Prior knowledge:
transport, membrane, ABC2_TM_bact-type, about 70% helix, five-stranded mixed beta sheet, alpha/beta, 16 helices
Amino acid sequence: xxxxxxxxxxxxxxxxxxxxxxxxxxxxxxxxxxxxxxxxxxxxxxxxxxxxxxxxxxxxxxxxxxxxxxxxxxxxxxxxxxxxxxxxxxxxxxxxxxxxxxxxxxxxxxxxxxxxxxxxxxxxxxxxxxxxxxxxxxxxxxxxxxxxxxxxxxxxxxxxxxxxxxxxxxxxxxxxxxxxxxxxxxxxxxxxxxxxxxxxxxxxxxxxxxxxxxxxxxxxxxxxxxxxxxxxxxxxxxxxxxxxxxxxxxxxxxxxxxxxxxxxxxxxxxxxxxxxxxxxxxxxxxxxxxxxxxxxxxxxxxxxxxxxxxxxxxxxxxxxxxxxxxxxxxxxxxxxxxxxxxxxxxxxxxxxxxxxxxxxxxxxxxxxxxxxxxxxxxxxxxxxxxx
Length: 387
């Protein structure tokens, strides 16, 4: 046997349990690497916990205690009994009492209430005379899930609750008519609810990921060191990273809205200029948050994970998929801290209700505050990186 063949035979001989030893070594290496990657390890724990918590406690497809306003044009015992009976159904929670039709309409248009009840003048006297007057219940139907169940249960529940007060026979006959008016989406078309919300949902996902990956990509490639050596300030770096994606997001929003109008017949009753301005504000807010994420993570995988960690509660707690008013109070507080919550209200109000700026002041101010907060954190953390 030649020397070459001897060497080849020795190399061909596997040591005992060689395969399992090498596999075990790789296994140990991966666990050590996972332990060092604390962000990824936290995502492994937090994502299932978050999903179980949100779906188990926060999501409710049959919302209760929906904010309701009442327009009372007379103060009568029957009117108070009707309002009490409605509140006892657990669907309605009276939060405002108004005295003019203008206030009544403004509350519905701004989204401060989901229902409005109008008790007309001379209502009780007409009931006593047997004239069968009408009780008007106006509903904000931009979210058909939130309004549909309440309107469907309204008649039988009120009739049952007032049976003893009105003494109208057995079985009781309703001595007045409940005239329900579903505003802004009377046909309860789900497309009118989903398409405007998709504008904010898609922008949230893409803007967060684009910006977070943009900065971490430079860190991984080593080009960030060259950038830091230049005479440039942290604010200038941030604006240079954000502004191009503002244009990208605006193109995306225009495309989604155009498809919604042309293919699905979604109306735009409000100002397109106002919609464009507030969409730009929303895009900038999400880009600022994505930039903040890029200052926290060390690589693109972590950036993607953190973006999805933020996107999950955004889509579930914003009112896009499930009625916001039906969530528990703690979930609503979390939702108010998410930009998508405010933009969903804005885009639905402008497109379906024809809302103006005076109707959207709260949500606009919330977006501005969230944008400034995220920018402050991003610049502060980036300055620490420079130091």
